[in-house]
């Protein structure tokens, strides 16, 4: 059969039917996007495209296929459902990785990766495999019907047939969209299974679920800070109710002007299917999965133009999706988000629950029935529980601001250069510093020359700060050069640890990681609410001219001296309610004796 696609958007009373020819392209920039009111393109983007950002992946050769839409029609939803077959038959189903083996992978990632500072969370996938009895395309059409009638709350329910492969699914998550110049992202995390094991109220109060959502919110804010002119404003959280699962979600929105293919590239791929920070998460995925992901964790992207000729984009994440080959092989990839509170048994159960939502469409697993009759919370109780998730978050990202409202005269016109240690928290930090009045340049740690600026900032990143690696050696050299030359220096998280070791302070790996934790600290005489993403900490010791903000056991949260300062936490994080206040306190003293050409003229 010739290529086609069936697309149903949440709440629509019709299904979009797309017909056209399929072309394979190598890069996102090559996706066809005719100017003006030309035809749309539906791009099937595999996970391996992450290599366009220079990130690690096991390259399985899965193609980037594009359906160039030649005919677009809409069919009433009820009519389309009535036209689809009902019979589905598959057999010989099992996960490619046994439960006990997946549990061991979880243990290893928690201990060797999260426990050693490689990141805050990582998504490791496994694949449910089975064989289709009968015609694969007819099976996919029947499964599509079952998803339309049996699932709810899906952002897109879809069937895409490229001529050589078929994908059918009901994805809950918009990754990124662009409409009327507004870029939007939709981080979803936290999983409540409809099996009666616990109530929705218990789920909303679960600290692990709350922290998991806040971590992916931070990670997608990093992406929004790259593709939107003033970063993203946070809206929510909300509940995402589906047939088998309920999730929590935020909506991020910001004005942008990038080509939509560049938006796709800069947001590859969602932290909900990779981890945080994304660059190192890709390394961890490659190490522990050891195989390609196909289309799992990629996106299905509809690109085009509106009536005014402006580019449009709508790109849901390829999860809760079955891939069916022409020879009848069925694959349902699913993943679990591993965080410091994860248990191997809990993450195994999560993968089973996620697979069940897709497999129910193939009549292999029936929809689970509630095991208890505990009443769900009222709408008011839900609203209060959801609203409480924003308590203590940074208003910088939740509120609209008048341009210039935060500009400090002591910082206006000054310049800063941030050395990125492989964590795009630097993009969020850039927006905060610019809001305070600084001009900001970001360079990677691999840059051979660091541009001149009034302030050098050693930024955050994953890894062991005490290790002898090219990155750590380079950062230590930059810290030493700045201290020797009396150049104003600020270290953040990894940069703070590097500064601390350069000053001669010892480092300690925490027994329990501080990944995605918000807490109140004593900050040079003031209580501040800040967010941590770290597994290491510096310990206080007597160093002339250096003062510390530390816990009674000597674990340092911040340090400062003549011309330098460091903070173990992330002032730019959404978890840091007082992040801007910390920068307002630390930065002016670092720059008060700097003679800047941009200021002095």
From TrEMBL:
Keywords: Glutamine amidotransferase, Lyase
UniProt-listed InterPro entries: ADC_synthase (IPR005801), Anth_synth_I-like (IPR019999), Chorismate_C (IPR015890), Class_I_gatase-like (IPR029062), GATASE (IPR017926), TrpG/PapA_dom (IPR006221)
Domain of life: Bacteria
Enzyme Commission number(s): 4.1.3.27
Domain Glutamine amidotransferase as annotated: residue spans: 417-584
Class of the enzyme per the UniProt entry, highest EC level: lyase
Provenance organism: Winogradskya humida
Domain (Chorismate-utilising enzyme C-terminal) ranges: 99-354
Catalytic reactions on record: chorismate + L-glutamine = anthranilate + pyruvate + L-glutamate + H(+)
Protein name: anthranilate synthase
